[in-house]
C-alpha cells in the first residue's frame, strides 16, 4: 500500500468481539487499533461512523478461467477479482487443475492466469488421476509451492472422477504430507445412469433434467462414503459445496462422533431454490445449473442456514464458476453438455448479510467467522488474513447496514451476462474495500489494477495434527508386542 490510511469510528467486528474503534493502516498492514487515533496531514481518512468494518471476505472455493465441459469459465483473475472486491471479498482460493496429467504444470498454468490478479489468492489443486508422479507432485507442491489442499471429484465420470481406491490412496497421501483432502461428493456412476435414464428413457433434455438426474440422495451417498473412507484413513476431510439437508446431516453425525469433517455450503445453496431450473426462459434456467444442484430452499436451504448457525457447517463459499448465456446455450438441447456453475463472488457477502444477519439468525461476529476467519484458519493463513489485528494484512471492508439495493447483471462487475441472485433486495452494502492497505473499491467505483494481487502460500499442516505420526507409533507398538499381532496393529492403527 501507499500512504497511511485511517478508518474512523466504525463498528469493528472480529469473530470474537465488536467494538467502536479507529484503525490505522500503514504499508499494507494494520498498524494500530485504538479508540481515538489522530490523523496527520499525510493520512487519508475514511469515515466509518455507523458502519461495520470487517475482515476482508475469503472465498474458499472458486473456478476463475477454468476449462470445463468444453468451455472456459468467463471470469478471469481480473474480472472475477473486480467483482469480488466490489462485494467485500479480498482473497480467494481457486482450484487449479492438472495440465497434461501434471499437477506442477497445472500450478504453473494457474499462476500465469493469475498474473492479472487484482487481489490476493491461493490455490487448491484438483487430483483427477492417481499414480506415483501425482503423489510426488502433491508432496512437492505442498512443501515448496504453498498448496495444502487437494480436491478429489467423486463425480464427472469420464472427466475428473476418481475411483474409491484412488480416493483412499489420495486421502492417505494427504495425511502423509500434511495436506487437507477435499471432496466433490456425488456418486458419479449413479449420476451417469440417472442422466441416461432421464435423457433417453424419459426424454427430458432441458435444464430441469440436471436437477432430476442428480438428486440429493446421490450427494448423501457420496458424502457418507467419503466421510467413512476419511475416518478409516483417519485424516480430516473438507466436503465442498454441501447442497442438501441430507449431506449436511452426514457431516453433523460425523462431527458429533468426533471426526474432523468440515462442511462448506455455498451462497447459492443457502439462498436459492431449485425451481429456477424449471424456468420457461432457458437462459434463466441454464444460469442456475451447477453441481451438486441447488435444492429446495424450504427444506435444504433453511437446514443449511441453521447448520451454519449451529456450527455444524463451518464456512461459506461461492463455487464461483461462470459461463455466460452463449456458453450455457451449448446445452440448449441436452442438459448433459450444459456447462455447470453459478456466480457469487460479488454477492456472497451482501446476500448472506441480508439473509442471515438482518433476520437475526446470526450475529455480525458469526458472519465474520463464516465469511473470513474460518477460511483463514482452515487453510493456514491466519492471522495474516481473516482478522482485524495489529500486524495483519490490511484487508477489510466497510459495510453500510442502511443502504438498500437490488442485485442485477446490469450493475454487477463479473463478466457474466446473467446473475443467479438477480432481483434479491439487499439491505447492507459494501461501500469501501481495502486490499493490502489500498482503497480498491469506494463510492461505487473500482480503483484497482491487474497484477496488484499476490499469491498467498497455504502452508502444510503439522503431521501430528493430521495424525501423521500415529503410523510410526503403531509400528513401534507392534514391535513391542508379539509378531503375530503386527498385521492387526497396522490395519487398525
Ligand atoms: O457446477 C459446478 N460446481 N461447477 C464447478 C466445478 C465443481 O464441481 O466445483
Ligand atoms: Zn465440485
Ligand atoms: Zn467448485
Ligand atoms: Zn505482511
Automatic annotation (TrEMBL):
Domain (Amidohydrolase-related) ranges: 52-440
GO biological process: pyrimidine nucleobase catabolic process
Record keywords: Hydrolase, Metal-binding, Signal, Zinc
UniProt-listed Gene3D superfamilies: Metal-dependent hydrolases, Urease, subunit C, domain 1
Entry's Gene Ontology molecular function annotations: dihydropyrimidinase activity; metal ion binding
GO cellular component, one term: cytosol
UniProt modification remark: Carbamylation allows a single lysine to coordinate two divalent metal cations.
Residues found modified as N6-carboxylysine: 151
Required cofactor(s): Zn(2+)
Catalytic activity: 5,6-dihydrouracil + H2O = 3-(carbamoylamino)propanoate + H(+)
EC number annotated for this UniProt entry: 3.5.2.2
Quaternary structure and interacting proteins, as annotated: Homotetramer.
Record-stated family: Belongs to the metallo-dependent hydrolases superfamily. Hydantoinase/dihydropyrimidinase family.
Name of the protein in its database record: dihydropyrimidinase
Species this chain originates from: Vitrella brassicaformis (strain CCMP3155)
